[in-house]
User: Fold this.
Amino acid sequence: MNQSREAPKKAIRAVSCPNCGGTLEVRAAGWSVSLACQYCGSILDVSRPEVQIIERHNRAAADFALPLGSRGRLFETEWEVIGALTRSDAGDSWREYLLFNPYVGYRWLVEYEGDWQFGTMLLDRPEDNGSSVVWRGQRFRQEDEAALAITDTVIGEFYWRVASGDRALCTSYECRDSSLSREESDGEVNWTQLVALSDGHVESAFGIFAPEPPEAPKRSSGQARGYALFAAEARSEASDIPALLGVSMLTILAGLLLMVGFAGGSAHMSSIVDAPFGRTAEGLRVGTITVTRPWQFVNVMARADTLDNQWVDLDYSLVDRATGQSIDASGLVEHYSGSDSDGPWSEGSIATTTQFGHVPKGTYDVFVDTGAHRWPTDVPADGTSSAWGTPSGGWADDKPDPVPVEVTVKTNTMSDGNFWTLCLLVMLMPGIAIYRGWRNR
Assistant:
């Protein structure tokens, strides 16, 4: 179905009003059930071969902005006004216009004190959740108490039998620029989604007067505008992306503050150890660290400023003074550089961080086992060149000096992985919204 097509010219059925003899045109022949006479105001039943008068009505009381038969283009579809009615509750009155397009069906325009809302059929009903309802993942909260709406004036044609004096119990639910209306009448419940239209939108579409500069969509301000006789669905023109991004950034900031707060008290110590070539230096004592929380993260950072085409293996141990139990982890510092046909290159880093997760409260002695290696040929235990021979350019046969490595131990740290996972999850919804907005451009 191509909604952007112009509405076709359809067969128009002509009937005669039994009350005044006036000739009336049925624009949606085969669809409409009732029709109001434009001459005497009588409401006629056009669903039978013989047209019968159902009720007389004073049409002079009707004051509608959109004349019957007028056409306008909304949401890339041309609509024709085929029916209109006025309704009221204890404190407000409003007008509702029935729109028709043979390719799309029926829609509604609701007018309240110069503001307009648009509605389309709602086929899937919201889930009731007390004072709110959930529809397609969005929560709509009840705006006011349920009110009794009465139909006062009816003109035009409709696909069900409608008459002045009809009553319906109406409840409105709000979510930003969109609202849902629940109407219950004679044991039947209908739901409507209504979307606010910007100032001058309807007037421009139907040629009531010259169009005004476009403005942002207006919010629904009264329960009356939330009432309609049939269910509807439409997409709001307002963008929620800035609000989503703002909430996401606040959530990330709050998460970061919580992580820092739960990291606990701060402890810091540093020492320099020598990593020898050709062997492993075992049990080098770095210092003592105290964990003050029941559980904390402990970071061990190693930095070797003189490292070039070499790497250093590091095996850490946190030994609890009270129990003698050890918590172990490994680290590696490596840095390589050179030049080839594409030019100079480098790889690795002279610094690395190893994190101990959930270290229990206590005092710990920190030890490290370390050994250095070089590339492309390693230094064997006797300190001579590799058994594979000295490469072109030559490695010295004497044993290289040990590599000094600064080891720093800190508490009051947090897990970088947890933080970036939080960022990814929080930014997921704004990312989806931005992608859908881009796809719908």
Remarks:
- The mean pLDDT is 77.
- The longest strand covers residues 351-374.
- Residues 241-262 form the longest helix (22 residues).
